[in-house]
Amino acid sequence: MKRYTLIAALIGILSLSGYSQKTYLYSGTPVSLTENKLTVTPVGDLLPEAKTGFQGMAIHNDWLISLEHSGVATIYTMNGEKLTRKGCLKLGSHSMSNHCNSANFSHLKAQPEDELPLLYVSRCNTEKMADGLDRIAFVERIDPIGMKSELVQRIYFNTSPKTITGNTTWAIDKENGMLISLTNTLWNKGVGNKHLLVKFHLPQYRGPQDSLVVLTLQDAVEEYYLEDYYNKPFSPIMQGLNVKNNLLFIPVGVGTKKEPSYLYIWNLAAHCMQNEINLQEAIPSELEDSDYRNGSIYLQTQSMGIQRIDFIRP
User: What is the rounded CA–CA span in Å between residue 292 and residue 279?
Assistant: First the structure.
């Protein structure tokens, strides 16, 4: 496996071939301590099951769940250095209308003895379901030993009275017990598109009586557009989300020169874009989703498997 090093803010475009280690700069406040330095390390290849495209990914302890469009989940164990495939299952929300754009484990469990906490999957499809709902987070109870999953809850975001045509992606802030939605007001590339961030208290799941939760803007703890505080153009191809230490990690782009792969880091406490990290040279692939484990950020990519980012400490 090759190992790449990134150091802080652009020093030029170099080919990856022939280099075992490379150095780059990234901009903004250092993510850890005083240095703008990070490394990118390949962890392992993903084994597609449905062959519909990798989307959401989530990690809990040594378990990694890799989702494909429609809700096919491949279960891996991971020690931080390599992946081991354990099996495959279909989510309870499996459907060709379920894009599975993002996946986040919460701190809640359906039953105390469950191996995994509840998994929140962003449908990320504005096409209405049979019951007229669209902006849905599917909540799945996954058994990685028995290789099965049960849809136990749906969370619906009714954005009225705002007129919004873009998709909604969800993230869990486990440390603060929050559910965060990030919504394109228009399609990703729409002229005038904005990004509406809404923070809710994470709904409880106590049983079948909580199978459907409807959230409105009146339930919001906080609501604003990123563009209220961030004035640079920001209409990327939206991918997955995850939250750690009041930072919202937003991988974007498709890994091309025209639409390069970036990792944006939004500071939820300060309401500012803390970092815009260009990963195009280190990971020239579509970034799909990310999660945090033991001080590292793991990225699921479309063609380069799982990549680990470590922010260097002096």
Answer: 17
Q: Is pLDDT of 117 > 70?
A: yes
Residues 6+ apart with CB under 8 A from 168: 122, 124, 135, 157, 159, 181, 182, 183
Distance between CA atoms of residues 197 and 16, nearest Å: 36
Residue pair 106/174 in contact by the 8 Å Cβ criterion: yes
Q: Are 287 and 263 in contact (CB under 8 A)?
A: yes
Q: The tokens 């208290």 sit on which residue? A: 201
Distance CA 28, CA 8 (A): 9
How many CA within 13 A on the CB side of residue 116?
A: 26
Per-residue pLDDT at 241: 96
Q: Checking phi first, is residue 71 left (phi over 0); if not, alpha (psi -120 to 50) or beta?
A: left
Strands 212-216, 148-158: pairing is: parallel
Q: Hey, CA dihedral for 126, 127, 129, 131, is it positive or negative?
A: positive
What is the value of pTM for the model shown?
A: 0.89
Question: What is the spatial order of strands in the sheet that 103-105 belongs to?
Answer: 103-105, 119-122, 136-143, 148-158, 212-216
Nearest to 195 by CA among 264, 243, 298, 244: 264
> What does the alpha-carbon distance between residue 135 and residue 124 come to, in Å, rounded to a whole number?
7
- Tell me the CA distances in angstroms from 180 to 168, 169, 239, one per residue in order: 10, 8, 14
CA pair distance 120, 138, nearest whole angstrom: 6
C-alpha angle 246-56-50 in degrees, rounded to nearest 5:
175
pLDDT in tens, 121-175: 999 998 999 999 999 999 999 999 999 999 999 999 999 999 898 999 999 999 9
